[in-house]
Design brief:
Length: 621
């Protein structure tokens, strides 16, 4: 380049360096390039690895570069050490600074990796995960701040966990990731706590890698803008606001008068199911809830139902609902959560809810019920009625809320029968749990709950095991989804929906119980009168707050003290229970033990979902 251009480039680089120096001094930070020997103890090294000649991201030297223009050529590779993902130049700092001043993305370098000694320290664990990923991909451009992310990236790109990247795959990925990083910078991504890799992995949950090639710069920036609220929450220690009761509006008379003009007087509501009500009792129960909603608020609503039959793309149903004018969408099963998130990003003015729990996504509100309150009451009845002292419990899947129900049942049983034992079986593991429990001597068995009227006279809920092999229903917790739907829609009409969103600034999970009417207990004709009286006393106590199922001394089956009895467990603690009480005989099954049909749901809502190996998607590069 002409000397005048070189001098101009030098002046710009010098100015940038001086600015960087002043900013570091003002922040009390060390303003010069860090020397590896100053921070590294050789005893902390488990070994060294010669990585050879690689392209090193220039951005790794932001705090290391001297802003000087040297006379050395820039074609020769530099020599440097890499330790915990940071590079320390041994020879070639001036070449680095020159290329940095020209915004070069990488520089060729002969790199020696210093491998730290393994420890449980989070930074060390993440680095060891990176080394495994580097062995497969030979990529330095992508870094994550949360464990398991490298495996999730492999899966998101459609690769097997041990897939070794080809040169072409690496080239295509780096091209796409580079475009994403530039668009992220334009949206202020450098001001977030997450790395570009964290945000890219979050983006891949809603979009495909190929979308980057098809999107315009404006469309890509808009798509990134849509995920930023999720990104901010993911770095929060408590990203979810659990709503345990219907919100009461705190607005004054004047505000209500204004709202009467601004708030909707009519709503278009859509329900999206993943199965038909004829094939799924769960969907049938929600259909009964929809009918109840129309019965109570029909003159203020227009309601449509959409079903994702086999071969139907759920995303297309959400688009169709919005095109048909839907202002509120209820997706009735957890399996639709990904489609809900994509629809929320695409249609931000539509209120979208998914029937699930513990989902940290602000664009989609979720709803479920505290069915454990009903389990507590049925446990107390079972403890009072048993003659053998052995109570069977059939659980569905190891997902959020289910262990709480098991333990609430056990605590209820110990209330009326301190010596009772609970024998636990899982339908996601065993195909004949009832026979197994009979063989264990259980004379009272808590089967699956009643979700619809047509189940009421079958062997659901708490049953007595008869000598002839039959089961007599006694009492069951029930789900009244109509109560939820009516109250939720009323909250939109009243404005408390917006109040809750403004107040929480988090993802909202509705988790209502007996006091809201969403949960109830239904006795059968065979239930003794004394037991009906007991159940009624306990129900009124739970509703009033005088009885708290978990405000007890609680020991786990492995001897840990959870509660000394002096406090109530928080909703978050109860929802995320992953332990079993000392009176429970059984365990929470691991993912490998589950029947194939149960695995998709456990991936979404499992109490150990973060530890489940990611499932690969279709090949994207």
């Amino acid at each position: 380049m002409p000397i005048s251009e070189a001098q101009a480039q030098y002046a710009a680089a010098l100015k940038a360096g001086q600015k960087c120096y002043k900013e570091a001094v003002l922040k009390g930070e060390y303003p010069y390039p860090q020397v590896l020997d100053e921070i590294f103890d050789e005893h902390l090294a488990a070994g060294r690895a010669e990585l050879g000649l690689i392209d090193v991201p220039i951005s790794k030297w932001v705090a290391l570069c001297d802003a000087n223009l040297g006379s050395e050529g820039i074609r020769d590779p530099i020599r440097c050490y890499e330790y915990l993902g940071r590079f320390y130049v041994q020879e070639g700092n001036k070449r680095v600074s020159v290329l940095k001043s020209f915004d070069a993305p990488t520089i060729a370098g002969q790199v020696t990796r210093i491998i730290p000694v393994w420890s449980e320290d989070e930074e060390i664990r993440l680095y060891y995960e990176f080394m495994d990923f580097y062995r497969l991909s030979r990529l330095y451009r992508v870094w994550f701040s949360r464990g398991g992310s490298y495996k999730k990236l492999q899966a998101a790109l459609g690769f097997e966990a041990d897939h070794v990247w080809t040169d072409e795959e690496r080239k295509r990925f780096l091209t796409a990731f580079g475009v994403f990083e530039r668009a992220l910078d334009s949206q202020g991504g450098d001001k977030l706590d997450q790395s570009p890799g964290d945000l890219f992995l979050l983006w891949l949950q809603l979009y495909k890698l190929s979308d980057i090639k098809e999107m315009t710069a404006k469309e890509l920036s808009a798509s990134i803008k849509r995920i930023l609220p999720d990104a901010k929450l993911l770095s929060s220690p408590q990203p979810i606001d659990v709503s345990t009761a219907p919100e009461q509006s705190g607005k004054g008379i004047l505000t209500k008068l204004i709202d009467s003009v601004l708030l909707p007087g009519h709503l278009n509501v859509a329900f999206i199911n993943d199965r038909t009500s004829e094939t799924s009792p769960w969907v049938y129960a929600h259909e009964q809830g929809r009918l109840r909603l129309e019965e109570v608020l029909g003159d203020k609503l227009s309601v449509q139902t959409y079903t994702a039959l086999e071969g139907t793309e759920p995303d297309a149903l959400f688009d169709a609902a919005v095109e048909d004018g839907a202002q509120v969408i209820f997706a009735t099963t957890p399996s639709l959560i990904s489609a809900c998130r994509r629809a929320a990003a695409k249609h931000p003015d539509c209120k979208i809810l998914n029937c699930s729990v513990s989902m940290p996504f602000p664009g989609v509100r979720t709803y479920y019920s505290r069915i454990y309150e009903g389990k507590f009451i049925s446990g107390a009845v079972a403890g009072a009625m048993t003659k053998t002292g052995r109570l069977g419990y059939i659980a569905s899947n190891p997902i959020y809320g289910v262990p709480a129900g098991i333990n609430a049942f056990a605590l209820g049983a110990s209330l009326t029968n301190p010596d009772a034992e609970i024998v636990l079986r899982w339908t996601c593991v065993s195909q004949d749990a009832i026979s197994e429990l009979r063989a264990e001597g259980c004379d009272m068995i808590a089967n699956r709950d009643v979700t619809t009227e047509r189940q009421a006279h079958e062997a659901y809920g708490l049953c007595r095991a008869e000598a002839d092999g039959s089961l007599t229903p006694i009492l069951s917790p029930v789900w009244n989804w109509g109560e939820f739907y009516v109250r939720l829609i009323q909250s939109i009409f009243s404005g408390s929906w917006e109040e809750l969103g403004e107040k929480s600034q988090k993802a909202v999970n509705y988790w209502w119980g007996l006091s809201s009417g969403v949960v109830d207990v239904r006795p059968s004709e065979a239930m003794p009168e004394s037991m009906a009286a007991l159940a009624d006393i306990l129900k009124r106590g739970v509703i009033s707050g005088q009885i708290d199922p978990f405000r007890r001394r609680i020991l786990t089956s492995d001897g840990r003290l959870i509660n000394d009895g002096s406090r109530s467990l928080s909703p978050e603690e109860i929802l995320h229970i992953d332990w079993l009480c000392e009176r429970v005989r059984g365990s929470i099954p691991g993912f490998d033990e589950l029947l194939e049909m149960s695995r998709p749901l456990v991936r979404l809502l499992g109490v150990y979902r973060e530890a489940i190996p990611p499932e690969k998607d279709g090949i994207q590069i």
